[in-house]
């Protein structure tokens, strides 16, 4: 995957606005001061693929668009955005230390979340302690909801609705048997637990369930074992490297069930680029594409224009990133930079976004239903629920190509 090189400290500021501010009296200069927004993001290390596909490009595009339009509307006053960011090197200690500095000593006006469930799990209590609203687009964990942190909001659909949607689709499509492979960490464990609950009363039998360690290099033995049981559906709760590994090795051993579902990374353009025509019929986590509405198409087109066709937004968390920024933009326009007021605005209102209407119950997004996507002719289509579908389900996965 091509990668845009970003300086360690990224500062995006409208030059014209800044120059004009220098000519104004001190009060006007204060009103026109940049809004300093801090975050850390993986630009090196194992989290880079997800972070640089799903999240940081959205941050950069948002700041560029807002500044090109004269700045962020802060309760009626336009102020340029200054992004204060650094590479966390996919290191949890660096993530925590950086956010403590941004909120504690740097005292930036706002913060944007890091990438991934684990990093958000580590930083969420810190943001809550300092009173910084956190709209997390790449965190998926029931435990984060159960922590009841009033400043923390999860944009993604959580394990329960996502697994219920998957089971509903499989049941409606006649699946009777399933095998599950899941990464042995928070994401995999929570989704596996939610799937077990969703399967109760569905009539779908679980033939095999296996975990694997993070960073596994060979899944072929367990895939061969699953193939021997001939399930109707294979479900992998996987991160991007695992998603590609499981797909490649399934193709190599000729494991091609009627329904093949993998998780994080399935909706990435990288998956299509790596698997090429072999993506056809593969199911995965995803909730939008450019057909999902006018706002979704505008975001998709602007993203491709800025970063190129080889770095399209993914069809899952990229949309959640943009939706989070839409909500934050609306909140600041309404209540200014008072962080408690922003938090109350986010918690107390329904928000129009490219993913549809979003509202929160505690930390959970309860406005967006669980969804399932499927690769069809080079596009990751939303196929479930039918009310959100951008294309009908391909009922049988074609052979790997």
Structural description of this entry:
The chain has helices at 15-22, 26-31, 48-54, 56-68, 92-104, 117-130, 142-146, 159-172, 186-199, 220-229, 240-253, 269-275, 294-307, 317-335, 339-348; strands spanning 35-41, 72-74, 77-79, 81-87, 110-111, 134-136, 152-154, 177-183, 205-212, 233-237, 259-262, 283-284, 351-353, 356-358, 360-361, 364-365, 372-376, 379-384. By secondary structure, it is of the alpha/beta class. The protein folds into two domains: 15-157 and 292-365, Response regulator (Rossmann fold, 3-Layer(aba) Sandwich), CATH 3.40.50; 159-290 and 371-388, 3-Layer(aba) Sandwich (Rossmann fold), CATH 3.40.50.2300. α11 (240-253) links the parallel β10 and β11 (259-262). The longest helix has 19 residues, at 317-335. It is globular, with a radius of gyration of 21 Å. Residues 1-30 have low confidence and may be disordered.
Contiguous runs where pLDDT drops below 50 for at least 5 residues: 1-30
CATH architecture of the largest domain: 3-Layer(aba) Sandwich
The CATH H-level superfamily of the largest domain is Response regulator
> What is the helix content?
40-55%
Q: How many beta strands in the DSSP annotation?
A: 18
Structural domain count: 2
Would you tell me which CATH topology of the largest domain applies? Rossmann fold
Structural class: alpha/beta
| Main β sheet profile | 7 strands, mixed
- In terms of DSSP E residues, the strand content is 15-25%
Shape, please? globular
User: Terminal Cα separation, in Å?
Assistant: 21 Å
């Amino acid at each position: 995957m091509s990668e845009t090189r970003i300086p360690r400290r990224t500062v995006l500021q409208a030059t014209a606005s800044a120059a004009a501010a220098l000519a104004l009296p001190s009060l006007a200069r204060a009103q026109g001061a940049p809004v300093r927004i801090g975050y850390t993001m993986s630009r090196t290390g194992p989290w880079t693929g997800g972070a640089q596909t799903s999240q940081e490009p959205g941050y950069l595009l948002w700041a560029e668009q807002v500044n090109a339009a004269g700045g962020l509307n802060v309760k009626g006053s336009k102020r340029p955005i200054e992004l204060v960011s650094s590479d966390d090197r996919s290191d949890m200690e660096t993530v925590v230390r950086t956010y403590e500095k941004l909120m504690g000593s740097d005292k930036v006006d706002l913060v944007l979340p890091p990438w991934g469930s684990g990093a958000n799990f580590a930083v969420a209590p810190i943001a809550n302690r300092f009173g910084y609203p956190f709209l997390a687009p790449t965190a998926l964990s029931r435990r984060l909801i159960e922590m009841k942190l009033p400043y923390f909001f999860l944009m993604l659909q959580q394990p329960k609705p996502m697994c219920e949607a998957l089971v509903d689709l499989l049941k409606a499509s006649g699946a009777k048997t399933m095998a599950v492979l899941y990464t042995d960490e928070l994401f995999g464990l929570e989704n596996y637990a939610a799937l077990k609950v969703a399967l109760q009363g569905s009539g779908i039998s679980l033939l095999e369930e296996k975990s694997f360690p993070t960073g596994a290099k060979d899944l072929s033995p367990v895939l061969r074992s699953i193939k021997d049981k001939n399930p109707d559906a294979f479900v992998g709760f996987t991160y991007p490297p695992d998603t590609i590994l499981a797909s490649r090795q399934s193709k190599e051993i000729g494991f091609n069930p009627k329904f093949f579902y993998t998780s994080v990374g399935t909706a990435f353009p990288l998956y299509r680029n790596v698997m090429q025509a072999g993506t056809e019929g593969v199911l995965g986590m995803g909730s939008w594409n450019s057909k999902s509405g006018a706002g979704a198409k505008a975001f998709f087109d602007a993203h491709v224009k800025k970063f190129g066709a080889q770095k399209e937004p993914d069809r899952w968390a990229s949309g959640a990133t943009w939706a989070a920024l839409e909500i934050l933009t609306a909140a600041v326009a309404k209540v200014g930079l008072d962080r408690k007021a922003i938090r109350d605005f986010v918690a107390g209102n329904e928000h129009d976004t490219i993913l549809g209407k979003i509202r929160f119950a505690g930390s959970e997004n309860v406005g967006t239903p669980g969804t399932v996507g499927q690769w069809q002719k080079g596009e990751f289509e939303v196929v479930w629920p039918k009310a959100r579908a951008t294309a009908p389900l391909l009922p049988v996965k074609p052979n790997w190509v």
